[in-house]
Amino acid sequence: MVAAGAALADEVGFANLTMGLLAERVGVRTPSLYKHVGNQEDLNRRIAVLALNEAADAVGGAVQGYAGRDALAAAARAFRAFVLEHPGRYGATIGAKPSGPDDPLATAGQRLLGAFMAVLRGYEIAEPDVDHALRTLRSFCHGFATLQSAGGFQWSADIDESFEWLIAFADRGLRAL
Known about the structure:
The protein has 177 residues and is mainly α. It has helices spanning 2-12, 19-26, 30-33, 40-63, 68-85, 87-91, 104-120, 130-149, 159-176.
């Protein structure tokens, strides 16, 4: 049921995902969904966990065997591709807060952060600056991908070229630390 909800969120947008719409999609009455998920909030959290794990797999797989700028580029491209392919399920992750360290949401989030931490190991970043570098990396990946997903780049310059500029900019900044 979660996979069906995630796929539907990708189609209609996370904000438009409802239990009624999901029930219609899978061909059941809405009360039947409650055998699989507790409520809308539970469905949303489960989609967020799924999305974070999928993004972690994509980014983690992409950076294996790479370091420095190559790892950065691989991670950024994999993350961007994930968000563009799965905008609804990625939307479920924004603002989702784990209830504690053992929450599957926390575990999945840590997996994704771990993939980005692997990128940062290719740069000489002082320990006190690692959190700042991680937030910067997440912000540039998230920002570009979500803007592109929402159709936020309407002018004529090539989007892929702009993304490569962003990767080069981030690489120069991380090397300068």
